[in-house]
Amino acid sequence: MAPGLYRANVEVAKACEKLQGQFTSGTNSIAQKSAVIALTGDLAPSYDMVKEFTRRRERTLALVKGIPGIRCFEPEGAFYIFPMYPHISGKSDGKETIKNSADFSMYLLNTANVSSVMGDAFGEPACVRFSFANSMEISRGPG
Questions:
Q1: Strand 128-131 relative to strand 117-118, pairing
Q2: 50 CB contacts (<8 Å, ≥6 apart)?
Q3: CB of 56 within 8 A of CB of 140?
Q4: Which residues fall within 8 angstroms of residue 84, CB to CB, at 6 or more apart?
Q5: In what order do the strands lie in the sheet with 117-118?
Q6: Closest C-alpha to 112, from 69, 141, 137
Q7: Model-level pTM greater than 0.85?
Q8: pLDDT digits over 66-105, tens only?
């Protein structure tokens, strides 16, 4: 190595690269125009959506908290919940046995048409993520 040149720690260099990319890349024109509208426009639609997402969150939490053995914290700003189901592993309906969050997610999809994301994807194998971003009318499904 030439005099005066030093090697950076690889992890630190990668973290610096990520930061540099975020600080030096410009905001695109669509985001700029959106920001102008957000700062100068009518906020009533935003307040209406906050109320709607609060209603969806409360309904989703009520449904999930009604299931014995499942714990769930109330999200403060996300449009999904992340309940913990520590006692589901090993449960069986006679046809399938749940071994992990991937099994549980697939079971919900195949038997109840409920979409979820396995907790393993977020580093929490005893959890499953459910979104309440969809309208309650669409979420109810047919019947």
A1: antiparallel
A2: none
A3: no
A4: 70, 71, 72, 124, 126, 127
A5: 80-81, 128-131, 117-118
A6: 141
A7: no
A8: 888 888 989 988 899 999 988 888 888 999 899 888 999 9
Q: Supply the Cα-derived Rg of the chain in whole angstroms.
A: 22
Looking at residue 143, its amino acid is: G
| 3-state DSSP assignment of residue 133 | coil
Residues of the chain with confidence (pLDDT) below 70: 1-4, 24-25, 139-143
Q: Where are any strands of DSSP class E within the chain?
A: 80-81, 117-118, 128-131
Residue 87 corresponds to which amino acid?
Answer: H
CB 119 within 8 A of CB 98: no
